[in-house]
Automatic annotation (TrEMBL):
GO BP annotations, alphabetical order: cytochrome complex assembly
Protein name as annotated: Heme ABC exporter, ATP-binding protein CcmA
Keyword terms, alphabetized: ATP-binding, Cytochrome c-type biogenesis, Nucleotide-binding, Transport
Domain ABC transporter as annotated: residue spans: 19-247
Domain of life: Bacteria
PANTHER family xref list: ABC TRANSPORTER ATP-BINDING PROTEIN (PTHR42711:SF16)
CDD domains reported for this sequence: ABC_DR_subfamily_A
Organism for this UniProt entry: Thermomicrobium roseum (strain ATCC 27502 / DSM 5159 / P-2)
Taxonomy of the source species: Bacteria, Pseudomonadati, Thermomicrobiota, Thermomicrobia, Thermomicrobiales
One Pfam family per UniProt: ABC_tran
Length: 248
């Protein structure tokens, strides 16, 4: 089991930031959805992005993966401007958003094979088998995505995100629809991913998931970071004095 001391050990984290966002701002018409967000994330770190409905959490992830352009501000991945989010950047990012980004008419395996080709995964068959096992999907690989329950669709989305061995996982409410066993699997998977030097940015409405997984959390409200906490004790304290989050 990973101890809290391990997870808070800053020396374990890489020195060069994996992600640097500066003054990141997004407006839709007159509405400022994200307001000058500054964020630096290092290798091996799991960052939880918390906040009430409509705070801007999903928008932040969408900007960071290049699905939406910022109104102003900059994003650097691996020390380089993300620019137009070309293949070199995208190859390093594994993304799970609300939309599962799988073809509902294809089977899980067909979807994964398609993405494997897209990302040039050489050992696709073995990789799909291993991920199926890791995510408890083996018996569902031959099922059409549209026939799967929400929880299994979420597992398939996680498999797709991990397929090309990205260095960073960006997960928008990854626990959505997962049963207790799958949540435990998710925690285990994220812990191992970070222990291997991977970086995770994860939005969640589940305080216990943030406390369990994240070395650091930021709390967004109306597009601004209103607090951030490092380590389980600090996060726990913030969540206790922030009853709004716990009741969301
Ligand atoms: N394409 C868009 N056009 C206009 N407004 C948008 C668009 N996308 C998001 N917004 C607005 O931006 C705000 C932040 O939305 P976002 O989905 O980022 O919040 P969130 O913190 O992820 O919320 P939730 O916890 O409910 O998922 C909301 O007020 C939303 O209506």
């Amino acid at each position: 089991m990973t101890t809290q001391v391990d997870r808070n050990d800053a020396t374990r984290l890489g020195h060069d930031p994996v992600l640097t966002a500066r003054a990141l701002t997004k407006r839709y018409g007159w509405r400022t959805v994200l307001n000058r967000i500054d964020l630096t994330v290092h290798a091996g770190e799991c960052l939880a992005i918390l906040g009430p409905n409509g705070a801007g959490k999903t928008t932040l992830l969408r900007l960071l993966v290049g699905l939406v352009r910022p109104t102003s501000g900059s994003i650097e991945w691996f020390g380089r401007p993300a620019g137009d989010f070309g293949p070199a950047v995208r190859a390093q990012l594994g993304v799970v958003m609300h939309r599962i980004m799988l073809d509902p008419e294809l089977t899980v395996a067909e979807n994964l094979r398609y993405y494997a080709r897209l990302y040039g995964v050489i050992d696709a068959a073995e990789r799909i088998r291993a991920l199926g096992e890791e995510l408890g999907l083996t018996d569902r690989l031959g099922d059409r995505v549209r026939s799967l329950s929400r929880g299994f669709q979420q597992r398939a989305a996680l498999a797709r995100a991990l397929l090309h061995r990205p260095r960073v996982l960006l997960l928008d409410e990854p626990d959505t629809g997962l049963d207790i066993a799958s949540r435990i699997r998710l925690v285990d998977l994220v812990e191992r991913f970070c222990a291997d030097g991977g970086t995770v940015l994860m939005t969640t409405h589940a305080p216990e998931l943030a406390i369990q997984l994240a070395q650091r959390a930021i709390y967004l409200e109306r597009g601004r970071i209103v607090w951030s906490a490092r380590g389980r004790d600090e996060l726990d304290l913030h969540l206790r004095i922030q009853p709004r989050l716990v009741t969301v």
